[in-house]
Amino acid sequence: MNTHILNPYSEQFGHFAIARSTLERQCLTWGVLWRRWLLRWRVRSDAMIKRAGDIAGSIAFLIFFSPLYLVLALLVKLEDRGPVFFSQTRTGRFGKKFQMYKFRSMRLDAEAEFEKLLAQNQHADGVTFKMKNDPRITHVGKWLRRFSLDELPQFVNVLQGNMSLVGPRPPTPREVMRYTLPDRRRLAVKPGLTCFWQVGGRSNIDFTGQVKLDVQYIESAGFWVDIKILLRTVRAVVVGTGAS
Amino acid sequence: MNINQQNGTLSVTGLRELNAANAQAFRTALARALSQDLKAIEIDLSQTQAVDGAGLGALVALYETAKEHRKREGFAIRLTNPTPTVQQMIELARLHHLFEITQPGSTPDGALPPISLT
Amino acid sequence: MKALLICPNERTGVAALAECVPLANVSILGKTLVEYWLEHLAGLGAQEVVVLAADRPDEVRAGIGDGARWGLRVIVKSDKRERTLEEARTRHQASDHTSWLPAPNDVTLMDNLPGLPQLPLFTSYADWFAVAQALMPHAWTPDRIGVRELKPGVWVGLNAHIATGAELIAPCWIGERAWIEAGATIGPSAVLEREVFIARGAEVSHSIIGPETLVGQFTEIRNSIAWGSTLVNWQRDSCLKVPDSFLLCSREPRRARPVPASTPAPVQAPVSGTASFLEYVSQLLT
Fold first, then answer.
1. Number of domains present in the structure of chain B
2. What's the pTM value of the predicted model, to 2 decimals?
3. How high is the ipTM of this complex?
4. What ranges do the domains of chain A cover?
């Protein structure tokens, strides 16, 4: 074990932990500055690139699809003259609450009906809520949801910085209150418009399955993973599977 | 800094510090003091309060300069009574493999006996 | 339900490390001390936690945020000095009629980790290391993200980069986003906190490397705690500030510890008038 340690000090190698001359010492110190810069970049770059991508993507989408937004807004307004947008409090990264925007797809008295319907919850473990043929949905709303068009205003949330293009779906504070500590791992990243389990079998997986897939996403998160998920989302939305 | 030679042992005492300020002076003084019939070099670090990379570099330069002497049987470069912080610096830079570190009484933990390079 | 946490202020046993970072914010295997306690209190059912910090409350606050991460409401209050349990109880509980957690969980002095009351953290550096050692096999709890066990006894965190030539000897713990170059040996009983950089040929054993620390090439860290450029040998209780950055340094420039209140009070901005303005300027210059 000892002999190989001495190689750094041998005359032929000249690799020293400590420098013999002022010039070597200066070079080593510059090396440290460079190393510091590299490490700082490595730690911060992922977040910076993701944010840049989010901003670019959401601006592009909003500009390109603004006619669609106008048409949908008109449709919602014309159905029952109620507000076009619907904002809901959701829980974002590290538990911070924010307002999430959607096109209104429920009747104006929807909240009152909510309690009555809790009993018919399709999701067995009671943390998330989903129901087939929810009677509170408007006709326009049903059609919007079929193609996920009610989620479109969330691009504004992405621009604001509360959400990202790719990430776990943002839970409601009501759901988060019932999270155990391991479930809270979901909150370690910004929520996104799309995610692993959404693309797979949207809303059909129960809660523990969702958490597992979210953690899988966080552990494997990276630029190319996000691109793959985005492409798969586009395909899934166009085909219109599992959105009911 | 005082350099004496007695009975084949070169001893350096009175070093207040061994850093960028006097590393060069240390190195040249010792290079000049090295003579052919040396059996050991002893550097007393009991009064050395501050050691930095430059100082350690000077010690390694001494190690290299004494290359011919090292070939001789039983030759050793000893650093005696380093203060705890200086001991930490020496161990950080792994110099305790090159030099013998002697303390009165206890042997420093983790110090391995020096290995003579041929 | 409410609870109170008291941050340790001055501990002579670990003075050198207390200078680098407020003791409530020390990272132990990836999580800070106050985070362990907040998780513990959230698990006991607390909804609101008051944290009393006499030492650098801003840093403690920056580390915790508002507590939404654990579903708690956390308020960090700065205090003039560290209160004892009884003092804290009388000051904060007497006037507050909301329900508190049952004793002894209502007021806690954070001198140890929640699961390990028999192992004090801050009595000496050796004790600190002993706590990290004891926690290592149990640190991989279900709420951690990205920890994997490369081989029995070697735990590696999220996004850590370990070069193929590096050697990892169990038991060791490597934090998130650490970078270990080829030829490095992370020896037995080594704890590397997050974002640590170990250069080529370095050897770390029986030691803790604090967060964001750069360990230079061909150095050897044994029986020590390295936090930025502060190197403490826990076996011999000696502390050293390494002067050369290429041996040991922090990735971020060191923030100086704020001066304690015994020094002259900060300059007060004047209300009006040219004369008082000139006085203000002259005060700044002295």
1. 1
2. 0.82
3. 0.80
4. 49-239
